[in-house]
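Hi, here's the filled form for the chain we discussed.

Project: internal
Contact: R.S.
Residues: 281
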Amino acid sequence: MKANNRNSKTTSCLSLIIILFIASTQTATAHEYWLDPVRADWMAGDTLKLDIRNGENFTGQALPLHPPSLAAAGLITPTQRLPLKGKSGNIPALKFPLQESGLHLALLETQQRQVSYESADEFRQFLSEHNWQSIYVDHSSSKNVDDEIVETYKRYTKALVSVSSKPDSESASSPDNHTALAYQGLQYELVALNPPQDVDRLSIRVMREGEPTPNRQVEWYHRGDDGVVNKGVIQTDSNGIATIVTEEPGNYLLNSVWVEKLPGQSAHWQSLWASLSFGKK
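And the returned structure, exactly as it came back:
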């Protein structure tokens, strides 16, 4: 019996190592990174469960919780902030007790990581997808244009979750959405300016170091109830604000990337990835 237990633990550890290795490889190569609640409807008293997903075109593998890779994670409710508590290897990765109704915000910030591009064409394709062609022009004029391209990156991801009251509760959902819609002080962040659930448009402000970011591209994805994913691009105005039409029910993901040069450092470039996900009934 003891030998079987040891074998089971060894197998579990090896499986976790393999999953984490695959996850780290995908994180370096796949584009979108988002928080995905495991279901659409939540009620006070439930345990909110969210997957961390990494992939492309709003399709990706659920990643296990790996605390050393995270700089911060938590849940902002109408009245408090809850820190993440969980075991390494957990899937779903994020779990929080829901103690009240109203609009909640789950957020996650990764540690800084590094990736190398195998070719200038690969780097150019990445920049083109996120409307950073000016960066490639700058890189092409560098005397080190043929050297390996090294980039550091961080991800800042948020998810808006609506939580209803218990059927036998006399209290209505909290009308105060201020905490979930507030700027959270992230280095690069998508800030929702209105609750997405009850309207057919969502406006966001793109924030970089606490300042609105004008003329910045934001990619949007919508997955309908039939599983079909549609995508498009919107642009922020002079105040850093962009608006997406959300008439169709399903799941939405917004994604934006900031790229800047790192002079005098081991990496040539830094990218900051911000995402915001939410559901619409």
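Let me know if anything looks off before we file it.
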